[in-house]
Specification:
Blueprint (H helix, E strand, L loop, with lengths): L2 H17 L1 H7 L5 H37 L9 H13 L7 H23 L1
């Protein structure tokens, strides 16, 4: 389960380092482990921003819009729960999945969302 968190951190950091013009120049200064540390720094920042943005701010905005206008365009739960439910519906069609499986699917959906967000913004 920890691999589901380490993988997106390093991938997001690597995507940012290779796509950002300022960081692309700085990459030549780093070698070996220092490059991993630099990628992890940016990756942790990106994953935290994605978790905050899609996990807390988007549902809060959906509830606020719903209270003010009566229209619920955005979901009341966070995006990761919705993606985990979609993945679980394909895996467990007849019975609801165990809580540990839902937690793993939520972490996997956080990983997918952060990598997709980094790729789209880079």
């Amino acid at each position: 389960m920890i691999g589901l968190l380490i993988f997106p951190v390093l991938v997001c950091g690597y995507i940012y380092l290779t796509e950002s013009p300022a960081e692309r120049i700085r990459i030549s200064l780093y070698h070996g482990w220092s490059l991993y540390i630099r990628a992890a720094q940016f990756g942790i920042l990106i994953v935290a921003v994605v978790a905050l943005l899609f996990g807390y701010l988007l549902p809060w905005l959906g509830i606020l819009i719903g209270k003010l206008t009566g229209i619920t365009l955005l979901p009341h739960t966070h995006l990761f729960m919705l993606l985990a439910q979609l993945m679980a519906s394909g895996l467990y069609a007849a019975t609801p999945p165990p809580p540990a499986t839902m937690a793993s699917l939520q972490i996997a959906s956080l990983s997918l969302c952060s990598i997709a967000f980094t790729w789209c913004t880079a």
